[in-house]
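Q: How would the structure tokens look for this protein?
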Amino acid sequence: MLGLSSRLIASTLLLAIPALPLSAHHSFAMFDPAKPMSFEATVKTLQWTAPHAILWVQAAQVGKYAPGLWSLELPTSPGNLSKMGWSRASLKAGDKVIVDINPIRDGRRAGQFKKVTIVATGKTLTVGAIPGAQPPK
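A: Here is the predicted structure in token form.
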């Protein structure tokens, strides 16, 4: 039979388990939607990983930002991106692009992805509604 302290620990752990997935997802409050940016860059890689894909691009001087590598976080998972028509090959290393982002508030070369236009083709990729998705009833 479990003692009082063992039951208390076990109860606490059982109550904490459902909260784990909620704490794993983070807020996008670190990005500043009041200061949207658009700039030309070259794709280094599209990091196709959960919970959010990340687009890495190399850019020259962008306003106050020195030339360098930017980390652009897409607001959804690769699974959802696939449902929106994306694939891990949607953007390739060396592609010249124009990216639209909300910059990170702390001044690093990072931001929340809004859209990307591939210069050579004019094709624009965004993150929006999943085709065929129905609103909740």
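Residues 8-25 have pLDDT under 50 and may be disordered.

Strands lie at 37-47, 54-59, 68-73, 96-103, 110-118, 124-126.

Upvote if useful.
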